[in-house]
Amino acid sequence: MSCGQRNSRHSKGGRFVRHLQTPIDEATRLALRVGEEVMLSGIIYTARDQAHKRLVESLNKQEPLPFQFAGQVVYYTGPTPAKLGHPIGSCGPTSSYRMDPYSIILMNAGLKIMIGKGNRSEEFRRSLIQTKSVYLVAVGGIGALLSKTVKTAKLIAYPDLQSEAVVEFEVENFPVIVATDSVGNDLFDRSN
């Protein structure tokens, strides 16, 4: 399946929802607009503060990364342990601002789509525009519901970080909203 295939829109109660398959190609990413509802399916990677720090350290040392950034999506979450018969426990979004210093470096290295919760720094937004990246938000407080979209979960890097390790999720219809698009339109901008 090619990048972004299954890119479709349908009406849901009068609202349009875009369905995207990861990895997401550049044209699809650039077409996303602030406020748009998206359902993601495919592979996404979890990473929080400490994992971001290690990714940046690997880049600085020119070491191999645990996954290739092109077309991929990183979700800021620290999932809870899985209950018997489930791939993962609760996996709600964590506050994104803590990742800003690292995310700027990772965007310049090719990571273009991130999912989190809350507003970002002005420096992050400027870098997002320069790199034509996209910031998506997941609704906080519904981690148990979000976990139902996770079909598989596989630890791929930094197991010593426990809940902050990099985990590969296979998701189906993971709901997000475009918070900042590649041209800088921002859901959190109160000046509009």
Task: Provide the descriptors you would attach to this structure in a database record.
alpha/beta; 192 residues; single chain; disordered N terminus; 5 helices; fumarase; globular; 5-stranded mixed β-barrel
- CATH class of the domain at 42-171 reads Alpha Beta
* Helix-strand category: alpha/beta
What is the CA-CA span between the terminal residues?
39 Å
Strand order of the largest sheet: 3-4-5-6-8
From the alpha carbons, calculate the radius of gyration and give it in angstroms.
16 Å
Note the total helix count.
Answer: 5
Regarding quaternary structure, how should these chains be classified?
Answer: single chain
What does this 3D model show about the protein?
The protein has helices at residues 26-31, 49-60, 100-108, 122-131, 143-147, and strands at 8-12, 15-21, 37-46, 73-75, 113-116, 134-137, 150-157, 166-180. With 192 residues, the chain is of the alpha/beta class. It has a domain at 42-171: fumarase (Alpha-Beta Barrel), CATH 3.20.130. The protein has a 5-stranded mixed beta barrel with strand order 3-4-5-6-8. Residues 1-5 have low confidence and may be disordered.
Topology:
Elements: E1 8-12, E2 15-21, H1 26-31, E3 37-46, H2 49-60, E4 73-75, H3 100-108, E5 113-116, H4 122-131, E6 134-137, H5 143-147, E7 150-157, E8 166-180
Parallel strand pairs: 2-3, 3-4, 4-5, 5-6
Antiparallel strand pairs: 1-2, 3-8, 6-8, 7-8
Helix pairs in contact: 2-3, 3-4
Summarize the structure.
Helix content is 22%, strand content 29%.
